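Data deposition worksheet. Section B asks for the primary sequence of the deposited chain exactly as it was used as input, without tags or linkers unless they were present during the calculation. Section C holds the resulting structure in token form. Section D is free text for depositor observations; keep each observation to a single sentence. Incomplete worksheets are returned to the depositor.
Section A, Depositor: J.P.
Section B:
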Amino acid sequence: MEWDCLADGDINSQVVIISEAPGNREREMKLPLVGGSGKFLWEVLSKHGMRRQHCYITNVCKRQLILEEGNDKKGIATAELSHWKGILEWELSQLPNAKYIVLLGGTALEALTGHTGIEKWRGSVIPHEGRFFVIAYNPANLLRKPNLSPIFSLDMAKLDQCIRGVWRPHVISPIINPSPKEAIEWCDKMIQEKMPVSFDIETKGEGREGETACIGFANNAHTGMCINYRSLADNRYTLSEEIAVRRAVQRVLRHNDVKLIAQNGAFDCAWLWYKDRIKTKPLFIDTLLAHHALFPTWPHNLGFLTAQYTTHPYYKDEKSAWKEGGNINEYWEYNVKDCCITWEVARRIEPELHHRGMGKLFFNHVMKLQPHLVAATVLGNRVDLQMKAALEAQYSAQIEDLLAKFKAQAKIAVDDEDYDVNPNSPKQLGELLYRKLKLHGKTVSTDEANRNVMIASSRTPPAAKDMLITLNTYKEQHKLYSTYITSRTDEDGRMRSDYKQFGTQFVPGRLSSSSTLWDSGMNLQNQPEMLRGMFIADPKYVYVYFDGAQAEARIVAYEANIAKWKEQFERARLNPGSYDAHIALASEMYNVPYDSVPKHDYNDDGSLTLRAIAKRCRHGLNYRMQPARLAQTTGLSIAAATDAFNIYHNTNPELARWWDEVIHECKTARVLWTCKGRSMPFFGSSIDESLFDSVIAFKPQSTLGDHVCEVQWRSQEDSEWPRSARIPFNNHDSLTAMCYAHDAERVASIMKKYMEQPLIIKGDALIIPSDFKVSYADEQGVHRWSNMKKLKL
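Section C:
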């Protein structure tokens, strides 16, 4: 087998660096790690006093893995990897002083340790027979993901610690299988010692049949107890013993002297409340949320945090590995490791929050919000089950009809009575559109945007257009059916959603939501208007809804310092109902009198009015949307959208200047800050075009997300807030509360008070006005989320 690249460096060195395989530059030079990835590696190592000539450098595979004809990368077959592994082991045996062995990438990891998954194992140091394996990403991978480059520096710092003899393993001594007396005494110890307490649960079973298998507690980084309720075959405690133990657990989770720590604590808190009726006090630190606040674009799982903040090697696969050998004690020991690691991460991350200027935002906002989101998840919302069943039947029939219609039209379009295609298969759909029909889109995608380009194209035959229109309707109805209508309610007839504070990378502060931890419910934030009637208030309760009026556009006005917008928005706030900022924008864009712009959005023929065009421009073009996308989102022709695009930006030149300012700030400061104290750090050697849209949208969208979330927790912690009221829905720029009818105005007034607190942006105070609605009863006396009328305060 031909070798493209040999080894290099000092054969007497203690440091051995092993990469995957040579690239183009390495093949030319016949030397390992001399290309771009090698340059990055040596720049990082030089900060620790290491030079190329002081190391021994080699590859697992001695031949290039890039095909001669293109850029597709071949993996290494198992047999070939075994071949190279044998050569590598012989090679290492010839190095008399090899002690610190750096494994760069998954191939090197697997070849010398047998482990797979570099994303999991990077950052680990594995001592083995007097040697230390230091595991890190392949630098070539980091050139494609520059935001991860600081992580590589952290991993190489561990190599430096090993060489200097200061690296120490993180040793954990787990206590498992405690008697009832030992478990209760440990809980008492957690309270009495008045140290922060980390806790973690493990579950048994899937979905709604799942139950709590154990709970672990630790108040230091090295010793913890797993209170496991089960053995492999049976329960460990009698009923009375388990009740006593669970009461002791509850005391720890509710005690005033205990500062609780958890990783992704919303999971543990919601599960314990919903499944075990154990309600925890608000957490002191959630390590996942703390890391998300500091590094929103990085992974936040405990495996990643273990590598970043401790010297413990990767262990998270132990959660299920015990099943292979049947030794469930390994599961309980894993639980203790989670507790101790989480405790240590919290100890390390708390001062980092304050050092980075994020302490105030994290402790006074992020952690304040969490218990209210847990409550929204656990308490859920009633669903009209009869209406849900009727919608399921209705949409199921519609989808079947649309599917049959699409397939019939496809046969006509391809002129083949025997032709059949699955519209849910991208591969089959691509074959139909491009190989059979030879249609022309903007790309080779089969997504809706590209289908719309095909529909608008004069080159698309009428039969194909009819088919595509049906396909779009089918896709829309199928998504409604599968994503929303068929979602599972819980046994109590309620729909629940797991609200996540870490669900958005480039818009931290904004929530995401999904189905619950026990596999029911769905995303409640993007609920289609037509389906909101399914959700009904509890008996004697009403819904109170508010929406921030043009909230995001107002923030853009102040961030971009558009004086005329600021004046128009403020005038609209002070004169609600008599002055409209969108009409003012349309008047300026099209140079027509204010009073001549229609107040409605659609003309009699269904076309958009000037106000509607201006409104849609404001919602899309503030963030660099191009004419083609504007046409897709508004239904305008490409020509009309291009005209609107040009008029909008000629009228508002401040927007382009603002974009340039934000990008310049990002490139020079490497971090952006919102007026709420939220930061977005940027890493890597360059910030390219692919990031610009996210960079520009960060401040307005993150600011609004944090502002609405602050309204959510502040309102519910206000001394005047009714104890019976709560906020079950957060829809990004709006909130929906549920309360007794006689409390509706009080609830709305409290939310209004916090929503209209000024945001200080670039020295100016912005007040975002809010429009309120209250639900009214239908003919059955039921208050539905869809039935809302204006509420005047």
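Section D:
Residues 194 and 257 are 6 Å apart (CA to CA).
The domain at 8-164 is CATH 3.40.470.10 (Uracil-DNA Glycosylase, subunit E).
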